[in-house]
Design brief:
Blueprint (H helix, E strand, L loop, with lengths): L2 H21 L12 H13 L5 E2 L4 E2 L24 H10 L14 H14 L31 E3 L5 E3 L22
Antiparallel strand pairs: 1-2, 3-4
Helix pairs in contact: 2-4, 3-4
Length: about 190
């Protein structure tokens, strides 16, 4: 084989290895750019949340693959965890999750936080296992964001799996102290 052929073969092999290695382990955002708000939320999620959370639509793989070997700061895998309604997601973003232990508060703020919340509420739970008696995530309403000036409150999940907004205890003595009390965010 001539020296020129050997050099060309070696260069071709090097380019092939470089191309294969560059694509190894990468996944792109799969949200259509025509959905501008949701796409922007996916980009921000990819940039700010990928270290701890997994969500295929954003091309992220931050959650531990095995919960038994997960570190304490490994966030939920949103491929299998439903996050609806959108107010629940926005509450978690604003308050550092529901436990407040590891997720930084306000990792995104303002319109960026709303975009990420809309993205997560729209795409989370798409690979959740089908369970008897549990409503499929895609059948739950995404919900709407509060108007400017309104505050977000965590949604509660009752024993039936229905999601509603948290309500304070009643001050009406006829209703009793326990009626309408929020039991927690559950997440």
């Amino acid at each position: 084989m001539s020296r020129l052929v050997k050099i060309l073969a070696l260069c071709t092999a090097a380019v092939a290895v470089a191309a294969a290695t560059a694509a190894c382990g990468t996944q792109r955002i799969s949200v259509p750019k025509s959905q501008a708000t949701v796409y922007q939320g996916a980009v921000l999620f990819n940039q700010r949340c990928a270290g701890c959370h997994t969500l295929n639509a954003a091309g992220t793989h931050g959650s531990a693959p095995n919960v038994r070997t997960a570190q304490a700061n490994s966030g939920p895998n949103f491929n299998v965890r439903c996050e609806r309604p959108i107010t629940r997601v926005l509450y978690a973003i604003e308050n550092g999750g529901f436990s407040g232990a590891y997720m930084p508060q306000n990792i995104v703020v303002g319109q960026d936080a709303k975009d990420v919340a809309k993205f997560v509420a729209t795409y989370a739970g798409r690979l959740a296992p089908k369970l008897t008696g549990v409503v499929d995530c895609q059948k739950k309403p995404v919900g709407t964001l509060p108007q400017p000036g309104q505050t977000t409150a965590p949604a509660t999940q009752g024993p039936t799996g229905n999601t509603g907004s948290a309500t304070p205890k009643s001050s009406n003595p006829k209703q009793g102290a326990g009626n309408g009390a929020a039991s927690g965010a559950g997440g």
